[in-house]
Structure formats: C-alpha cells, structure tokens
C-alpha cells in the first residue's frame, strides 16, 4: 500500500505531516516506512529525508539529491545529472515489499516536473494507491487546494483527504482568512478535510489510516 503525500505548494508542511504521521502510526503498531525519492536544496544535507529516516529507524536516503533549491527537472539540468524515473519506481517497489504502508513524499506541488515534462502527477498515477494533500492555512489556500484536488480527481487519483496545516508565523497569524479557510474547504470539497498544528494532533488520524 502506497500513500503519496503532495502539497498545494512548496513549504506547506509536507515533511512535518509525513514525519508525524509516521510517528503515530508506528506507535500504534502499524508497519510503516517513509521515503522521499527526490530532494532538492540539499546543502549540505537532505533535511527532509534525514527526518524521515530518523523516525523510521533506518537510513532511507533519496535516490536523487541536489544542492540547488529548485524543481527536480531544473536541478538535473543545472547539476548535469539525469533523473531515471524507472530507478525511482524500482526503489519504491523495493521499500513497498518491506512494509504494510509506504508513505512517499513528493517535492512541492502535484504538477512539479521531476524530469523533463514528467511530473509528480504522472508519478502518483503510476505508483500511488492513495494521495494526501497538505495545504497551509493562509490567504489563497482555497484556490490552491481546489485546483490541486481538481487535477487529482481529473486524473483518477484516489484522494485520502486534504490536511490543512494551521501553523503560522507571527505575521501570518494576522491573516483573517485563517479563521474561515477550514470550514470553507469542508463546504466546497467532496473529500475529507482535516486540520493539524502540532504533533499531538496526529493521534486523531491513526484510525483514518
């Protein structure tokens, strides 16, 4: 079983979501692993993959890591290293065979290109049983989330739900849209919508997974 984690944008909390979901599922006795197959901005280390490895209790490095903090398709050109999609899938199948649930984290949003015109949407269509969308609670999240859900549904992806990250920096907390975004998304979307802010909030997600 593969759960693919994507976001409405970069920096919305995908890794926080992945790591804390892994923690609570492991604590509940679930056989689960996490994996980020491609990571950019690894200068000097791949922070996301490191966090995932720590909670899994084993080293699970990306298949491809790049120093430049850009989309993988751009990073492979800038750093002259071609990404082999087949190798990514091969590694995912290897980890999938070792566990009951494999949580695979993408980079950025669902339409981010991995190599050439091949996107994380294409990747999810080929490897994922379910997709979780992480969104950051701020002005603009309604549009970004509806667009992401729409493209996933159009491409027949099985949506597990939308997970609204309520974390915000001090200036973001003054954003009045944060008060209503969750209820608005629940009203507009025909998929489950959840919210989280701290690691403690993930305990309520265990039965859902």
Automatic annotation (TrEMBL):
InterPro entries for the chain: DTB_synth_BioD, P-loop_NTPase
Subunit structure: Homodimer.
Subcellular location: Cytoplasm
Keywords per UniProt: ATP-binding, Biotin biosynthesis, Cytoplasm, Ligase, Magnesium, Metal-binding, Nucleotide-binding
Gene Ontology biological process terms from the UniProt entry: biotin biosynthetic process
Its EC number(s): 6.3.3.3
A GO-annotated cellular component: cytosol
Keyword Zinc: no
Pathway field: Cofactor biosynthesis; biotin biosynthesis; biotin from 7,8-diaminononanoate: step 1/2
Enzyme class: ligase
Cofactor(s) annotated in UniProt: Mg(2+)
Tagged with keyword Nucleotide-binding: yes
Annotated residues for binding of Mg(2+): 15, 48, 105
SUPFAM superfamilies according to UniProt: P-loop containing nucleoside triphosphate hydrolases
Organism: Desulfurobacterium atlanticum
Family as reported in the entry's similarity comment: Belongs to the dethiobiotin synthetase family.
Pfam families attached to this UniProt entry: AAA_26 (PF13500)
Source species, domain of life: Bacteria
Biological role stated in the UniProt entry: Catalyzes a mechanistically unusual reaction, the ATP-dependent insertion of CO2 between the N7 and N8 nitrogen atoms of 7,8-diaminopelargonic acid (DAPA, also called 7,8-diammoniononanoate) to form a ureido ring.
Active-site residues, record numbering mapped to chain: 36
Binding site for substrate: 40
Protein name: ATP-dependent dethiobiotin synthetase BioD
